[in-house]
């Protein structure tokens, strides 16, 4: 893989309609006493304005870790970013001082978390916490910040915002807490919002409301949205593009419609088959065989090969494309679709 | 959570789901001021009877320290007559007389000032040292933590009385009330530090700290605004209890001849002097002990009320 030309601004400035965030060959490892865990192994993606990019993967696939690396909230140590770049507004965040990075977080890139209750400080009222964004970043007075907090709570459709602004997080329901989180995250009109499993802790009807809210806010502000999830249904409904992660790598990337209709990687194919289908009522679900890989000992070759039904080993494989020894690169399979499998064409059936 | 609250929450969800478009701002005009941690805590404190009882007791002792003449009914504590030695309490002399034949009520009342100053001053120093050192060690971790924790261990290894004895013997601080308070605090802050440190470490890894970081909060803001308010409760309770221990420890120093010296008057001195006469004149230990206990109780009640008020989940 060739190194990008670092002298050129990569991600365009906001308002130009181009790329707002670019992650380039990101590597993250956790150095633990029992060895090195390779959590993210060369992840690259671009996010455009108004785009919703879903990052799909099972637990331990590195999807949350890559987001935490962008937000600078990895616990270091044990986590170490060993390579790559995170480009925002023409600058590589990883090359900047901690203070400069901090100024990007909030007004530039913001994040919402899975568990809104534990993500809100229990000792402050929600209005105070939302208002803190304005006080800390804009130097607003307490009175003005509170007024803005009420406006934001209205904007994320919290009923009776004016009356509830002094309530505490534990006095809100799960869906309302997630709205408070969203209000905090969008307070400073960020160009990029990362949502790390924003609906996993919510029940299904509330999930839909929260996702609708996120989409509406995106339409208003034009922000790019990175949606980290393992929920195929949510991806199908709200995302434009999807990147499927496995063992710290992106194994398939394309538009949601294409990828869902016709996967190019056996892992994606397995994911689709494991979803319950209304038409197939009474039939058995098809799980992916085996266990997710141990990131401290990722299998050689294609990391997915021990679980892959289409693997070709030894003499059965095309030379240079042996699944147990040769690591397949992420390559363009058909226009608009990339996959990291030696035999993607076969999987696609083209 | 009550059924009514549950119903309210469900109502919220339904209402949020049915709202079409983005609602117009409904700013509450009646209360434009931003509620802070402390203003909400104060609202809660006002409703807490523990706070009022503790506060009242504290005011009484504070008044006693400021205007001892009034509480001593104009009697001079140093006007003694050996003929009255160890007399039991009577209608004219509520607390009786001590061994030197001095009015004991006047002595106990005049002791409030020194004892309170020592207790409160020492505890403030303990709180300051404990919170600052503990927070820095817990928050920054690594080498900073190791260094500060080992320094704390060194102080732990020195017994309170021995340490204070050495400091007071060198004489650089003098032998007054401030010197005794500082000497006591210097060798009594370690538990507070350990408490704060462990709480900070526990709170540091919570999601809301990560969230605050992701929203661009600086280290200082995260420590002061997000971690400390959630980490302070145990140390508040600990320090309120410690006030009594410190007031009593002053007595030990006096016994060893390095604390306050007569003619200074303090509860510690009185309890110490009364101990040897416990069988013949128990009131000499009883009265200063009662006021000391009431003082400690007042602080504990205030500490408890404050802890509850600072935790929104405890609020009614």
TrEMBL record, chain A:
* Annotated compartments: Cell membrane
SMART domains named among the record's database cross-references? AAA
| Domain named ABC transporter: residues | 21-272
Report the GO terms under cellular component.
Answer: plasma membrane
Q: Which domain of life is it from?
A: Bacteria
Iron among the record's keywords?
Answer: no
Question: Would the keyword Lipid metabolism turn up in this protein's UniProt record?
Answer: no
Residue stretches in coiled coil? none
The protein's matches in Pfam families, at most eight in alphabetical order, are given as: ABC_tran, oligo_HPY
GO MF terms held by the record: ATP binding; ATP hydrolysis activity
GO biological-process terms attached to the record:
peptide transport
Q: Which UniProt keywords apply?
A: ATP-binding, Cell membrane, Membrane, Nucleotide-binding, Transport
Major localisation: membrane
Membrane topology is:
Peripheral membrane protein
- Annotated signal sequence range: none
What family does the entry list?
A: Belongs to the ABC transporter superfamily.
What protein am I looking at?
A: Oligopeptide transport system ATP-binding protein
**UniProt organism field:** Geodermatophilus sabuli
Automatic annotation (TrEMBL), chain B:
Please name the taxonomic classification of the source: Bacteria, Bacillati, Actinomycetota, Actinomycetes, Geodermatophilales
**Annotated region described as Disordered, given as residue ranges:** 1-28
Q: What keywords tag this UniProt record?
A: Cell membrane, Membrane, Transmembrane, Transmembrane helix, Transport
Would I find Nucleus among this entry's keywords?
Answer: no
Segments passing through the bilayer: 50-71, 116-142, 154-171, 177-196, 235-260, 285-306
Write down what this protein is called. Answer: Peptide/nickel transport system permease protein/oligopeptide transport system permease protein
Using the record's annotation, list all stretches that form the ABC transmembrane type-1 domain.
112-303
Determine the domain of life of the protein's source.
Bacteria
Organism of origin: Geodermatophilus sabuli
Q: Does the keyword Acyltransferase apply?
A: no
Please report which protein family the annotation says this sequence is part of. Answer: Belongs to the binding-protein-dependent transport system permease family.
Q: Which GO terms describe its biological process?
A: transmembrane transport
Topology relative to the membrane: Multi-pass membrane protein
Listed PANTHER family: ABC TRANSPORTER PERMEASE PROTEIN, OLIGOPEPTIDE TRANSPORT SYSTEM PERMEASE PROTEIN APPC
* Compartments where found: Cell membrane
GO CC, alphabetical: plasma membrane
């Amino acid at each position: 893989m060739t190194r990008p030309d670092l002298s050129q601004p990569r991600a365009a400035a906001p308002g130009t309609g181009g790329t707002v965030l670019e992650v380039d060959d990101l590597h993250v490892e956790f150095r633990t006493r029992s060895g090195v865990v390779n959590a993210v192994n060369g992840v690259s993606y671009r996010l455009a304005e108004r785009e919703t990019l879903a990052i799909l993967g099972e637990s331990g696939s590195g999807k949350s870790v890559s987001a935490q690396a962008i937000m600078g909230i990895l616990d270091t140590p044990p986590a170490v970013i060993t390579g790559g770049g995170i480009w925002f507004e023409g600058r590589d965040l990883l090359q900047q001082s901690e203070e400069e990075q901090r100024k990007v977080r909030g007004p530039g890139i913001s994040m919402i978390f899975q568990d809104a209750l534990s993500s809100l400080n229990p000792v402050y009222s929600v209005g105070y916490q939302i208002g803190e964004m304005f006080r800390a970043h804009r130097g607003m007075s307490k009175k003005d910040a509170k007024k803005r907090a009420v406006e934001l709570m209205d904007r994320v459709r919290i009923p009776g915002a004016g009356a509830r602004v002094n309530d505490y997080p534990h006095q809100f329901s799960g869906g309302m807490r997630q709205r408070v989180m969203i209000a905090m995250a969008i307070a400073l009109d960020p160009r990029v919002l990362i949502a790390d499993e924003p609906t996993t802790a919510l029940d299904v009807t509330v999930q839909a409301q929260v996702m609708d809210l996120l989409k509406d806010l995106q339409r208003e502000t034009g922000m790019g949205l990175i949606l980290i999830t393992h929920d195929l249904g949510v991806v199908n409904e709200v995302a434009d593009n999807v990147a499927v992660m496995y063992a710290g790598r992106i194994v398939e990337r394309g538009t949601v419609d294409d990828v869902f209709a016709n996967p190019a990687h056996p892992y994606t194919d397995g994911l689709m088959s494991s979803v319950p289908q209304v038409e197939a009522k009474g039939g058995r679900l098809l799980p992916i065989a085996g266990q997710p890989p141990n990131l401290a000992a990722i299998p050689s070759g294609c990391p997915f090969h021990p679980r892959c039904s289409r693997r070709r080993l030894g003499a059965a494989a095309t030379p240079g494309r042996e699944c147990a020894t040769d690591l397949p690169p992420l390559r363009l399979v058909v226009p608009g679709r990339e996959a990291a499998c030696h035999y993607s064409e076969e999987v696609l059936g083209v | 959570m009550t059924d009514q609250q549950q119903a309210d929450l469900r109502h919220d969800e339904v209402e949020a789901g049915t709202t079409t478009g983005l609602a117009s701002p409904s700013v509450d005009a009646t209360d434009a001021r931003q509620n802070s941690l402390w203003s909400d805590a104060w609202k809660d404190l006002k409703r807490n009877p523990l706070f009022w009882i503790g506060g009242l007791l504290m005011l009484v002792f504070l008044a006693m320290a400021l205007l001892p003449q009034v509480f001593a009914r104009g009697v001079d504590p140093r006007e003694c007559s050996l003929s009255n030695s160890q007399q039991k309490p009577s209608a004219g002399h509520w607390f009786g007389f001590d061994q030197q034949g001095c009015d004991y009520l006047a002595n106990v009342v005049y002791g409030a000032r020194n004892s309170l100053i020592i207790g409160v001053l020492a505890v403030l120093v303990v709180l300051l040292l404990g919170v600052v050192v503990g927070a820095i060690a817990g928050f920054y971790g690594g080498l900073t933590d190791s260094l500060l924790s080992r320094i704390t261990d060194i102080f732990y290894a020195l017994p309170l009385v021995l340490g204070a004895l050495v400091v007071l013997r060198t004489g650089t601080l003098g032998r007054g009330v401030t010197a005794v308070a500082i000497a006591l605090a210097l060798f009594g802050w370690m538990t507070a530090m350990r408490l704060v440190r462990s709480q900070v470490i526990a709170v540091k890894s919570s999601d809301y700290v990560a969230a605050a970081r992701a929203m661009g909060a600086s280290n200082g803001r995260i420590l002061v605004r997000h971690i400390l308010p959630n980490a302070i409760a145990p140390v508040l309770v600990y320090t309120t209890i410690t006030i009594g221990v410190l007031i009593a420890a002053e007595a030990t120093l006096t016994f060893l001849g390095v604390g306050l010296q007569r003619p200074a008057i303090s509860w510690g001195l009185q309890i110490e002097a009364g101990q040897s006469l416990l069988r013949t004149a128990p009131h000499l230990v009883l009265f200063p002990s009662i006021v000391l206990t009431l003082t400690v109780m007042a602080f504990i009640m205030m500490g408890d009320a404050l802890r509850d008020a600072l935790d929104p989940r405890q609020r009614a």
